[in-house]
Amino acid sequence: MKMTKNIWGFVFLLCLSASFVGCQDEQDATTVLKNDCLKRTLGPNVVGETIEFVYAMAMPYGSGKIVSAEVEASIQGASTTKLENNSYYTNASGTDVPVLIGNPCTNDGRISKVDFTVDTCAAALRYYYVIPEEARGQKVTFTFKTEADNGEVLTYKMGPYDISKMDIKRGLELKGDCFISIENMAVYDAATAATMPNKIDLVYLWRNIPGVSFGHSFVSPAASGEFLPDISLPSGVNNDTKIRREWGAIDTHLIMNQTENVGTYIDDVDFEKIDLTNMPDYALNFKAKGGIWLETKDGKYRAFIYVNTLNATAGGTISMKRYQIK
After folding, report:
1. Dihedral (CA of 259, 260, 264, 268) sign
2. Residue 61: C-alpha distances to residues 122, 185, 210, 256 (Å)
3. Has domain 2-162 been given CATH number 2.60.40.3550?
4. C-alpha of 181 from chain center
5. Are 256 and 171 in contact (CB under 8 A)?
6. Complete DSSP assignment for 13-31
7. Residue 20 buriedness (CB in 10 A; 0-12 / 13-18 / 19+)
8. Per-block average pLDDT, block size 10, for the chain (326 residues)?
């Protein structure tokens, strides 16, 4: 990201601003240590995903050194939450190069801390907050803190940030005729589907029917038999799921290409507002990189399935966002 490539310049500007303390307001003018923070991640904040920040701190060369940095979250992050002990600069080829500046991060409850081990007056550390289940539907704030060897201590607050109520599941594999559960966010074969018929909301199948554009299709179990050719539904699998085909709602979270950011996201409000009234119960002849909106028979869940890949014949991969309405 462009933001990432400018991190070293970000630290440089902090150093520069610290050299001109006469231009700062009265509070800033009392310290030579300066700090700032950027949030790198975009889109909705979903449980299990990571919110990434860059925390920069600097003081004029020769005025002292930074001894520690820490972040306190208002809700304790998952166990993999950490403040990185590397600073970064961007080399001539545009690659971010890490520079070790301290001991590995220690987590103590809601606080992640790095103690510096090198003599430096500037650093930009990355903080990765892995969103825990406890934060679902809540707001979370962060207090960044740095300390210098001259006794100066600065804090910087970020947030509050809304944590989404929805769930994400990526890379679900489609193998031949199979059965999809929105509640479980999972794909099953016929034998397993038969053990949980009330949780099966969608049938995936591929058919090559002469004169009919059928191909890869997603069909409600309650759909007319013409849309489920040669399918033997397990006993009790009969949910009537509403389906709306969507070619434009590509979601960066679901595309599974970490180098690509299409700049669009499906958020909680999209699930709340979408109207699936009178939608059909089938979507035929599907192509990769499209999607479908779904609503379960009981109206408890809405979901968006993005089709990542499809084979020349049966099979492929999908990813799903799911939101509980009731």
Report:
1. negative
2. 9, 54, 76, 43
3. yes
4. 22
5. yes
6. HHHHHHHTGGGS-TTGGG-
7. exposed
8. 39 41 46 95 95 97 96 98 94 91 97 97 97 98 97 97 97 96 98 97 96 95 96 96 86 79 88 95 94 96 96 97 96
Print burial letters for 288-321: b (CB count within 10 Å at least 16), e (below 16): eebbbbbbbbeeebbbbbbbbebeeebbbbbbbb
The span from the CA of 95 to the CA of 81, in Å, is 24
Degrees, nearest 5: CA angle 177-183-184: 65
Closest by CA to 179, choosing from 170, 167, 188, is 188
Cα torsion angle, 185, 188, 190, 193, sign = negative
Tell me which DSSP letter residue 185 carries: T
User: Where in the chain are the domains?
Assistant: 2-162, 167-324
Preceding amide of 98 cis, omega within 30: no
- Tell me the C-alpha distance between 67 and 123, whole Å: 11
